[in-house]
Amino acid sequence: MAKDTKDRILEAALELFSQNGYAGTNIRELSASLGLVKSGIYKHFESKEAIWDALLDQMIAYYAERFGSAEHLPPVPASLEELVTMSMNLVHITIQDGKIIMTRKLLTIEQFRDARARDLATKHFLTGLTDMFTQIFSGMMDRGLLRRDDPAMLAFAYITPISALIHLCDREPEKTAYAVKQAEAFCRHFAEIYGVN
């Protein structure tokens, strides 16, 4: 099924905003990239800001669908190996999904200009993952898979180095294989230190 014009506009906006930033992209460039005239954009969105808002709404839904959230958790792993597998699946989605890569770049650029982008960057890079893994680790503790500790502190300690490695992939794509290897080694180290056998 062909994409409708509104979806095509948002797709092109994500690409241009993630490369040039919001201020560095104008409606003329956006319309030209789609083979439209400016009025073709304004038929669907009243302003560049309306495109921006719709794009952020779309990305919130896209992330929630692929990663889950504190409200829609992935299943609590039934073993330490499942924890490693689940974590690495999330890493692979994060570094291979083009929309997620562009969104992460966009939020990194725009977090200093736009309060909503700042809040989403904080959520996607830190608090959302911490909240999600707090609940996952709490469930694993209840199952006797992880030793009792503060699940929020463990979640923070778990996601921070992995997030740093993901950002390394964005800055230096040639180090992606290294980053993935380090992320898996860290997940296994964590399971070994905190796991209950």
Radius of gyration over alpha carbons?
Answer: 19 Å
Q: How many β-strand runs?
A: 0
Oligomer description:
single chain
Give the overall pLDDT as a whole number: 91
Write the H/E string, N to C: HHHHHHHHH
Report how far the terminal alpha carbons are from each other.
50 Å
CATH topology: Tetracycline Repressor, domain 2
Total individual domains: 1
Q: What is the share of helical residues?
A: over 70%
Shape summary:
elongated
So, CATH architecture?
Answer: Orthogonal Bundle
Count of discrete alpha- or pi-helical segments spanning 4 or more residues: 9
Q: What's the main sheet like?
A: none
Main structural class: mainly alpha
As residue ranges, the low-confidence spans are: none
What is the percentage of strand-forming residues? under 5%
CATH class: Mainly Alpha
Task: Report what the structure shows.
By secondary structure, the chain is mainly alpha-helical. The chain has a single domain, classed as Tetracycline Repressor, domain 2, CATH 1.10.357. The chain is built from 9 helices and no strands. α5 packs antiparallel against α9 and α8 (151-171) runs antiparallel to α9 (176-194). The model has no long low-confidence stretch (mean pLDDT 91).
